[in-house]
Design goal:
alpha+beta; three-stranded antiparallel sheet; two-stranded antiparallel sheet
């Protein structure tokens, strides 16, 4: 995790649940996507050290790149989801120091040298975020999303 932070791919977020809830309410009021405003990305090294010395709880967020991440889905073809514009920087490590699924999934695939990922179509919109994480580790993968099987 420290490597991602040092290289600028991730950052500590000290925002409280109250602040994040206010952002969410404001997004709902203005009918905008509820996405993190990157406040903690702007913290100086000194501000971060001060917050760490006070033992303030923090999460770690992955710093998404603003460039779109289209990809060629093995099943559906060209796919684009503007994850930066719609979702904002995702949390990859929770305040209890446990990784989120998105982060653990990419780390696991990277360590196992997975080259092709087949999964359900409900994960398709997460793929651009995952591709950025793969890139941060110096790797990549090919993705195919399968339609859900319905019992009818």
């Amino acid at each position: 995790m420290g490597d991602l932070i040092e290289k600028g791919h991730a950052y500590r977020c000290f925002c409280t649940e109250k602040r994040l809830d206010l952002l969410k309410r404001e997004a709902n009021r203005t009918r905008q996507p509820n996405k993190y405003d990157r406040k903690c990305l702007q913290l100086s090294p000194l501000e971060i050290e001060e917050k760490l010395s006070l033992k303030l709880p923090f999460t770690v967020r992955f710093a998404l790149t603003p460039e779109p991440q289209p990809f060629n889905d093995l099943i559906y073809g060209h796919f684009l989801h503007e994850v930066f514009e719609i979702e904002g920087d995702p949390i990859i490590m929770k305040s209890d120091q446990y990784p989120t699924y998105h982060f653990a999934n990419v780390v696991d695939d990277h360590l196992m040298k997975i080259t092709h990922v087949l999964r359900g179509v409900e994960w398709q919109v997460s793929t651009p975020k995952h591709l950025m994480m793969y890139k941060a580790f110096g790797g990549t993968s090919v993705f195919g999303h399968l339609p859900l099987i319905m019992n009818k």
